[in-house]
Structure formats: structure tokens, C-alpha cells
Design goal:
Elements lengths: L2 E8 L3 E12 L2 E13 L14 H18 L7 E5 L1 H5 L3 H12 L3 E3 L2 H15 L6 E7 L4 E7 L2 E8 L3 H8 L7 H25 L3 E4 L2 H12 L9 H14 L18 H15 L5 E2 L3 H13 L5 H12 L4 H17 L6 H16 L11 H11 L7 H12 L15 H16 L11 E5 L4 E6 H5 L2 H17 L4 E6 L1
Parallel strand pairs: 1-4, 4-5, 6-9, 9-10, 12-13
Antiparallel strand pairs: 1-2, 2-3, 6-7, 7-8, 11-12
Helix pairs in contact: 1-3, 4-10, 5-9, 6-9, 7-9, 8-9, 12-13, 12-16, 13-15, 13-16, 14-15, 15-16
Length: about 500
């Protein structure tokens, strides 16, 4: 049976579904497109001034995702990854939007950071381009954000995500669809202002090839070539000619612009203004179309998660090195925490498998905060893990890591509010017990504790003689039981046997 993977990209302008077939060639996996769906949603245009998505926009999104669900309904959960970008990142009613979207799609949806979006875009384009020793610049103008990347081979060097997109700029500068020189210049200047903070570093790093991967870039290329404003790719001269025509016409006349897709027409002027600003600030001479982008990057990342190349594992290793962690101690705590977690015998589903991975990563990184200060180091750890750029991790992944590391010691009543599932609290108990057991920073031949998950209580079994010989451990375990009793989050009981 062929191996199929599915990626869902919930962008601010369009929702995309890509299905790929995995084939092995000389020991390397390659993904070939099997099916693609692309529907305009313009989610960003449905956002109010107070950053809330209007019900009408939510309905459009749900309708599209129900159609996507029909196509991937039979897929195993670990063969599907859905990611949401800028509009989901900034929406005040994100949680309600996410719940409606997940119910319609039938699969979990991850809200990813701009940095992670840029990394995945680079991965997607790189995997679709022929090998090259050159540094490559990649531009992806989405509905609510623009990603700017420089990389070589499959390794990104600079990653940026800027708060400007063809939908948000349409609402801001061309709300009624009228295009004037003044409006175009305002949009261009606003975009140049966004780019100013990164332009110098990007120009200094340099590149030999430039690619545009978004619908905006492809739409501009199609128009420039069809109208002979450019012989190849995108040039600043060609875009200036297109801008002049739009200003003369005062609107986008689809009948006079061959090859433009109807749903692209309303956002063309804004997308063009952003692209002109990109060319002006970065001094780009020629840009070619880049295939793949975010959805293909998600497919390759999903393939890596199902093998030994999970990007998240690499990120944890790099953070361990950056913060000079005690690897032996981290391994002790991780091994103990996962052993205790396995004793709970939770249902073997994707959610619990992912939770087990998160518990392992939290255990590996729980001492990150020691590099900042010993006092309240668990707070420092949580802050770093929630706010750092962590390639491969979604925002929800990082929030869960922050929750686990923030709560691995100290009083449970001091934990900030978090919409945690019961299994999250059980994982936290495993981490707290593991840290407690490994406090002497010595290897143990076997764990002196065993967890039993009953219908009424979570029992911590231990040997009575072992406990009697260790008053500090006994005090810590009984205090732990009392802490959970006070919170009412878990019913935990210490049970001794001879």
C-alpha cells in the first residue's frame, strides 16, 4: 500500500490541501504530489478592528474545511498535519475559531509562529528546486504576513516574518477597490517601513538566486509575462509598468489582465505594492517562481516526524547545547518521567503519543532556566520555552512545554491558568515525581515508585521500608499528595507495601 501524507495550510487568504505520495530513491525519501485543493477564504478580511474574526468569515472557513475533510477522512491521524498562520496567530477569538475549524476538518490544527512558518516555507521550496551551491532568497507574500528567508541547500540562514500581507493591506489601503497613485505609494512606503529593520542584514548576507512562492508572486509573474511587461520572472521595471496600468484603470480589470485568477484580482494591488517594496529595499533584480512553499514544507516535516529526523528532536538538542544543560541529569529525569507515564497505561492514541513526546522534551529541557538564575529557574525555563524560536514546534506545543516545566516544582496552586486536559496533569505529576527522585543527580538501578491509574484515584505505590529509610523522600511524597488534594485536579494517594 502506498504511503500518503496530507498537509493543510490555513492561510489568511487561502486554505490549501496537498496530498503527497512518499517514494524511496537511493535511501532518500521524495514526496510526489497526488492531489491539491486550493480555495480562497480571505479570513484576514473578515477581521474586525478589535482583531476578532466575523462569523461570516468563520462560516466560509468551516465550509472549505468540511470539503477538505471529505478528501482526507480515511487518513490515519499521524499522516495528516494542519497548520494555521498569521490570522489565527493574531485573532482574539482564536480558540473559538480553532474549535470550529478542527470540528470541520476532523484533525488537530496547529497555530505556528511566523518564524516556524518561514522555516517550513524554505523547506518546501528547497525540496522542489534542483540542487544548487548558491544562497537563495525566498519571498512569500501571504494574506496577513510576508516571510523573507535566505538559505543554502536545505539549511536556512536568515528567517523573518513581517506583519504585512495582500489581504491586510487591501483592507488598509484599498478598502473600496479603487487604485490611485497616492494609495499605491502609501502602501509601498508602509511595506518598506516593515522591511527596513531586516534589509541591511539580508543585503549583507547576499544571495545568488531569488524566488517568490506565494499566489501573489505567481500572479504577478503570470501577468507580466502575458502582457510582455517582463520576458522572464519578476523585475522592478515590469512591476512599475503594471502599477501604472492599475493606476490608470483605477481598478483591476480582469478582462485586460490575462492569466490572473478571479479571486486574486481584489488583492492584486496590495500584493504588488508589497512586492515592489521588497524589490526596492532588498535591491532584487530578478525573481523566479518557487513551487512548494508552506504546504510542501509541512509534508516533509511530517515525513521527518515519522522517522528519526523529527525537527523537534534537533531543536531540543540545540537548546540543550545553547543553555549548557547537564545531559546526564536531563536523561535521568526523562527516562524516569517516561517510565512513570507508561505505567499509567493511557489509551494508545495520537494525542497521548504526542503528549509522551512533549513530556520527554520538557524533561530534557526543564533546567534551561538555571542558565539565567537558580532562584525560580522553573519560571525562567517556562518563559524561554514559550517565547523562543523553536523550529518544528507549534505555538501550542511550546505552551504545553512551558506548562510542564513551569509546574515541575513549587506549589501547584501557583501555576497560571491553563486549559489543560486531565492527561496533561497526569504528565505533570510524572515529571514532578521524576525530578524529585533524581534530585541527588545519581543513577538508580530501578525506580522505587510505581503508578497505578484506577477509576477513582491515581495511586503512587512504594515500598514501606524504602520510604522509612528516606525521611526526605517521604516528606516530599506526602507533600506532593497534599498539593494535589488542595487543587482537586487529580486524586493522588500514596500507598505503601511491605
Amino acid at each position: 500500500m502506498e504511503q500518503l501524507l496530507a498537509a493543510v495550510d490555513l492561510g489568511s487568504n487561502s486554505f490549501r490541501l496537498s496530498i503527497g505520495r512518499v517514494e524511496q530513491h537511493n535511501g532518500h525519501a521524495q514526496i510526489y504530489a497526488v492531489d491539491r485543493l486550493n480555495e480562497s477564504v480571505r479570513l484576514a478580511s473578515g477581521m474586525s478592528a478589535d482583531k476578532r474574526i466575523h462569523p461570516e468569515a468563520v462560516e466560509r472557513a468551516v465550509s472549505v474545511l468540511k470539503r477538505f475533510h471529505e478528501r482526507i477522512a480515511g487518513f490515519h491521524p499521524n499522516r495528516v498535519r494542519a497548520v494555521a498562520t498569521n490570522t489565527f496567530r493574531v485573532a482574539k477569538n482564536r480558540q473559538a475559531l480553532l474549535e470550529a475549524a478542527e470540528n470541520a476538518l476532523g484533525f488537530p490544527i496547529e497555530v505556528i509562529s511566523g518564524y516556524e512558518e518561514a522555516r517550513l516555507i524554505f523547506s518546501g521550496i528547497s525540496n522542489e528546486l534542483p540542487p544548487s551551491p548558491n544562497r537563495r532568497l525566498m519571498i512569500d507574500i501571504g494574506g496577513g504576513s510576508t516571510e523573507v528567508i535566505i538559505g543554502k541547500g536545505f539549511q536556512p540562514m536568515l528567517l523573518s516574518s513581517l506583519s504585512m500581507g495582500c489581504v491586510s493591506y487591501t483592507d488598509r489601503f484599498f478598502p473600496d477597490g479603487t487604485i490611485t497613485e497616492v494609495r499605491m505609494q502609501k502602501a509601498i512606503l508602509a511595506a518598506r517601513n516593515e522591511l527596513e529593520g531586516i534589509a541591511k542584514q539580508y543585503r549583507k548576507t547576499g544571495w545568488q538566486e531569488a524566488y517568490g512562492s506565494s499566489g501573489t508572486a505567481k500572479g504577478i509573474i503570470a501577468i507580466l509575462q502575458a502582457t510582455e511587461m517582463s520576458k522572464k520572472g519578476i523585475t522592478l521595471e515590469g512591476m512599475e509598468q503594471l502599477k501604472a496600468k492599475l493606476v490608470r484603470d483605477r481598478s483591476v480589470k480582469v478582462s485586460e489582465l490575462p492569466d490572473i485568477k478571479p479571486h486574486r484580482a481584489p488583492v492584486l494591488a496590495a500584493g504588488l505594492a508589497i512586492m515592489i517594496a521588497v524589490f526596492q529595499e532588498l535591491k532584487i533584480k530578478l525573481m523566479l517562481p518557487g513551487e512548494g512553499a508552506l504546504r510542501v514544507g509541512v509534508l516533509y516535516d511530517l515525513l521527518g516526524r515519522d522517522s528519526e529526523r523529527d525537527k523537534r528532536e534537533e531543536t531540543v538538542i540545540q537548546l540543550s547545547k545553547r543553555y549548557h544543560l547537564d545531559i546526564k541529569q536531563a536523561t535521568r529525569v526523562k527516562t524516569a518521567a517516561l517510565t512513570l507515564f507508561d505505567q499509567l497505561a493511557l489509551a494508545n492514541n495520537q494525542e497521548n503519543q504526542e503528549l509522551r513526546r512533549s513530556l520527554g522534551w520538557a524533561a530534557s529541557l526543564h533546567e534551561v532556566g538555571l542558565s539565567i538564575a537558580h532562584s525560580d529557574y522553573h519560571r525562567h525555563t517556562a518563559y524561554v520555552l514559550e517565547n523562543a524560536d523553536m523550529p518544528g514546534f507549534s505555538k501550542d506545543d511550546q505552551i504545553l512545554l512551558a506548562f510542564l516545566t513551569r509546574g515541575h516544582q513549587s506549589k501547584l496552586t501557583k501555576l497560571p491558568s491553563f486549559d489543560a486536559e486531565p492527561t496533561h496533569w497526569q504528565a505533570l505529576l510524572c515529571l514532578r515525581l521524576a525530578v524529585m527522585l533524581m534530585r541527588r543527580r545519581e543513577d538508580l538501578e530501578e525506580l522505587p515508585l510505581h503508578l497505578q491509574n484506577t477509576t477513582e484515584k491515581l495511586l503512587i505505590h512504594t515500598n514501606k521500608d524504602w520510604l522509612a529509610a528516606r525521611p526526605l523522600s517521604e516528606f516530599a511524597l506526602r507533600t506532593e499528595q497534599q498539593q494535589w488534594e488542595r487543587t482537586g485536579l487529580l486524586s493522588v494517594k500514596l500507598k505503601t507495601t511491605k
